[in-house]
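Note to self: the last two entries modelled the partners one at a time, which told us nothing about the interface. This time every component goes in together.
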Amino acid sequence: MIDKNEILEKIEKATSTSELESLNVEVLGKSGSLSLALRELGKMTPDERKVRGAELNQIKTEIISAMDTKKSILELSEINKKLESDKIDVSLNKAEDSKGHIHPLTQVREELLQIFGSLGFRLVSANDPDIEDDFHNFTALNVPPFHPARSMQDTFFVEGGNLLRTQTSSVQIREMERTGVPVKVITMGRVYRSDWDATHTPMFHQIEGLYVDKNINMSHLKGCLIDFLKAFFEVDDVPTQFRPSYFPFTEPSAEMDIRCSLQNGELKIGANGNRWLEILGCGMVHPNVLKAVGVDPDEYQGFAFGMGIERLTMLKYGIPDMRKCFETDTRWLSHYGFEADDIPNMITDLSKK
Amino acid sequence: MLFTYNQLKKYLKTELTPDEIANKLTMLGLEIEDVKDMKAPLADFIVGEIVECENHPDSDHLHLLKVNIGTEILNVVCGAPNARKGLKGILARPGNIIPLDGTKLKKGMVRGRESNGMMCSEKELGLGDNHDGIIELPSDVKAGDSAISALSKIYNLDVIYDGNVLPNHPDYLGVLGIARDLAAGGFGELLMPEINEVKAKFKSPITVENNATADAHEFNTRYIKDVKNGPSPKWLVDYLSSVEMNSISALVDITNYCLHSLNRPLHVFDADKIKGKLVVDYAKGGEEFIALDGNTYILNAGDIVIRDDNGIQSLAGVMGGLATSCTMETKNVLLESAYFNPVVIRKTARQLKIESDSKARFERGIDPCCTVWGMEFATNKILEICGGEASEICKTGKCEFKEYTIDFPVSYFAKRVGFDIPKTDMITILSNLGCKVSDNGEILSIIPPSYRQDLEGKADITEELVRVYGFEKLPAVSVKPEGDEKVVDTKIIHKTKLPRTLASRGLTEVYTWSFMSDKKEFDVKESIKIINPIASDLNVMRQSIIPNLLDGVKANLSRSIMTSNLFEIGPVFYGNKPTEQNTSVAGIRQGLSGVKDWANSAKLPSFYDVKNDVFAVLSVFGVNASSVKFETKDLPSWLNPYKSASIIFANKVIGYVGEIHPLTLKKFGIKNANVVAFEINLDLMPESKSKGTAKKKLTISDFLPINRDFAVIIDDTVPAGNILNAVKNSNKEYIKDAVIFDIYKGEKLDSDKKSVAVHITIEQKDKTLTEDEINVIFNSAINSVVKLGGILRDK
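The predicted structure of the combined assembly is written out below.
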């Protein structure tokens, strides 16, 4: 005899899905009690069968429903138990591989390329040797032997009669020899002078600009440099002072200062600064330089400028000691360096804010 | 160049303040780097009068003073021997900063007695060297007066400028020249010193022969007899000390005064020490010469010298000799005023490594026409200070300064600088600078003065005009292009991208020197030596970047930085001539890839990490991994030959990749670390021509790909890369991919064998392949490996 209540009670008391499964076999399996009872129906009279059949089917439906309900409850609790046993500590972090960084000099070189590119200067990438001959580094730049200007920079010499270029101005000569005039180029590269302290290293980088055409005059030089300074330091107004100076390869020669205050290594540009800070040297290309490359200085003229890239980098990004630029200290490099995706561009702000 | 406000005012009548002068000079081209006002640190000091002076009961030298400062009387303890009642001196009160050492004076107790100040010595106030006692002011000053007004009565409280004289302005090496430029700029009126010609009473007894007139263009001497040398008068001592020149004796000081104020170097010989006649000549080379600085110099052929019967007595224009130098006992003096070829002076000084104020002026070019003028100036001063009687001037050679004309088109100025100034202003400026100007309409004919031989052509005249007229008046005009100009080529873009690609792979960019130590070079044919290196371990140009990176790893390890993943892009050299260089990229990996943590995700680097770095570099230049080969023969000795390869592209070795040889690491002092590295010559990368055009159409099959695995046992010498290539090439149409998913070597196999397991992916392009069709493809893949000597192990 089927005791519905007993079965329902057993279902209710089941503690696991496997217990429920064996109960299922016991009741609803091939030789389960309910299946056997249903098989008995065949031996009954039609009237008996009708009554008993409806009764048994009702019981079956109830049992199946109870089993399903109990099964989902047990499954949920079992899966939760399993998940709980696999609990993690969310306060932990997983270490990433060490990040790589871009050197601040590379970042600034790219900024310079963006700015001067937008001003129409083509970058000279070849034709700019570090080992230079006397002609390109000195003589063609209007510095004959025993000229006092030679001692303005302490030159390194290599065996075989050549030297390490003391300035990127040598590229002016090489580029005009190669392409002639008009010419509107920048070059960036390593230069070498025998000097070593917190603001001088025996090797450093310069950017050199050269613009020679028929009507390029000193007001263009000033305009070009002011445009550059505004873009580079990302300020609308850069108070500048243009003052006379001397370079053998330019005449007139000038140096440009910016008005700023410099406190604890932090540069603030603006009219209320307390000092003028020298930032670059420039001038109108000396007629002798043009003559040295076979250009008629009465027909063509133009300007040239040069800046130390380390100096610009140190000023913009508050770097105190230039020598550190050439060490491999990854603590310094990750602090003053840039992420791989910090790409400077002129469409938005030049550098990341 | 140091000079003072008061010195300048001798030659310039001006209303400008010291600060205004500094600013105007900077804008004229004499950059004033420092202005030191001697009055400034004295502002808070006052005059104190000692009204009582008793001995300190507990000391044998201290005094107890009562000092009147006008408003009150203070107790002061003082140790100066000259302290006495009635003396008026300078009192420093608590809070005052003592100029000598910058310390702030505090109220103190000295041996039990309160002291409310300090009576100051000259040295303590930065006014001189005297520290023997306290300053004694004249009696007409009053207690409580300001120190500045009181001290001005006995000291020259001046403003000292430090100006940076550039090579194009030799005239700035004399105070008179600076005054002249300010006057030309309209900032005052030039006051030329008055010089009276000395009435000579006799001929110089010392004859002079000039055998070097080609370079000793003019050499003049004058004998002055019966002089009385001695210490200089106070004004001259003060003058020299304010510009940091030592006072030697009156005779020498006068020549230095002349040099500094007029830019006219002179020399004085003790005439009694000269034997026979003086000869101006060239050194033969090898002669010894003892100079005034006490050093012995070995002269070079061609140096200009002045000798007598005893030998060389002076190195012309550079330094006099010790033997004939003036002393306090000098009675008769020979004064020399000459003009020498600047190039010879410069060469001599450079070869002998000798510096002097005289040399600094001769080498830059002084006024060739001022030899006589300068001599008269100095003679007057000598006669005035030392007495004596002067001879006629004995002249040899003649500096024939030839005037020259620069034709300057008026319109050239505007063409060159972009704005105009009136012709009349041009003429005024140039005339004030000492030029003779004649106005020929459009052309100005300009004759520069003898002291401005740096003015050579139109460009120089333009510079003079623009700097005196005012640089601040220059307009600024943009040079932004109107159209779009292509400013960089693709190769530059690639080089710009490269550091970012490598940084994103965990490598950090460094910049190291282009030089290195010859002791650390790798397999170089010949070192490229620097003749004058900055340090003995930076004495050759690098022919590879890797040694510098290894030095970097070593430096980091000694900083306890245990991971160094570094790269550099820069020049490497293969010869000592211009352009004998390449641009190279090198990377190095040492240490765990990250922090060692609970998740154990950090790994030590291997050959395969840097090989992937190489692929990343190549892909920046558009080079596929499949177009390069890795070969293990002919490797350089700095690499581990069993874990390294040369990189071959377009039949050329473009670089190396692999593990650094343990012996190389030892040489660099790197212990207990394995280091992998790569270096590629970027000049051998192709110029990419790809543009932003449409890409090849992507087709993705609707049918799922089929995966099959197999393993073979094969000789250990067969590179796994060859197995993969064979599998891929066995059916290029259907085998989409093949990877090696396991390599086994060990006990179960012969020692010269390995088991390689391959996973292949077969693409079903447009229909479902039958089992037979799949087997044909699969078996041909297996057979391709069997042909390499493999025995099928497992399918």
